[in-house]
């Protein structure tokens, strides 16, 4: 990719530079990574008092999630957007940094306006994390995966085993934490070799995971999206398992809305089945970070898979298209959360 693409802000120093310009939002250190790196969250919109008396699970046990978060009709929906859970998946980092720039200045780093998005943003409490796994990002020696060949991409993401062979996906999940089994530790992992996506959520190994789940518990987000990179596949939402059926239906409704939006923009989107049956055969699918986030707060929780523009077969988007595809996602999250004619019907998880 030409270095002229100055909007491609994927370095940890780019994040710092962006955050140092934040005036409308509030920057807060969320956690320190295993490798001693700061993880920040940027907040827009005041935190409202939901009258918490219990955690989400206990409130459900009492038969009323309002004991956890009582969200009145005009409460601002809470949206959480998380980039860089896999530190080398740069597309989401670039997107969150550009979104922050937009909310601060009215233009993204390309100088483009997204007035509807900015207007809608005021109606939410937004929690934006540019990079949840800075250790993984720091280990990636390049600033873009655009035009990177497939094997090199696998090396950067999942790393190598002790014998030097590539640690591919999903075999990279067979050892966890992977640190002692790896030669080159891929950018998937924090410095302790933990893949945050598959931490032990009942006793988190990584302080990154613990901090994210604590944030979710405190904030009661109605809608969380983690931004991932899905190689050269069409853009899609990875299916999330172990959600209650009514949440799965809501997730599928959003999936369909997103499919329509990408079609209108001429961007390639694959409609996955968020209602796919599971659990009747062995092994069961994984209860991952996206599932855990729902169970900590009751909200919708997605794993967004971006196209990565690799030099490999499949779909290959340009850097511009990759950023645009994230702005489409953000816009549709806002629209969906505001509901038909802004009724907020879908927006608040507790209503
Ligand atoms: Zn990922």
Key features?
351 residues, alpha/beta, Aminopeptidase, 7-stranded mixed sheet, two-stranded antiparallel sheet, 9 strands, globular, binds zinc ion
What features would you describe in this structure?
The protein is of the alpha/beta class and 351 residues long. It has a single domain (12-46, 53-342), classed as Aminopeptidase (3-Layer(aba) Sandwich). Helices cover 33% and strands 14% of the residues. It has helices spanning 12-20, 56-61, 90-105, 115-121, 134-139, 150-158, 207-219, 245-265, 289-297, 319-338; strands at 26-32, 38-44, 78-83, 125-129, 159-161, 182-185, 223-229, 236-238, 300-306. The protein has a 7-stranded mixed sheet with strand order 1-2-4-3-7-9-8, with helices on both faces. A two-stranded antiparallel sheet has the order 5-6. Helix 1 (12-20) runs parallel beside helix 3 (90-105), helix 4 packs across helix 10 (319-338) and helix 8 (245-265) crosses helix 10 (319-338). The radius of gyration is 19 Å and the shape is globular. It starts with 11 loop residues before the first helix and ends in a 13-residue tail after the last helix. 46% of the residues are buried. The structure holds zinc ion (ZN). The site of zinc ion has 4 residues, from strand 7. Zinc ion binds at residues 86, 89, 228-229.
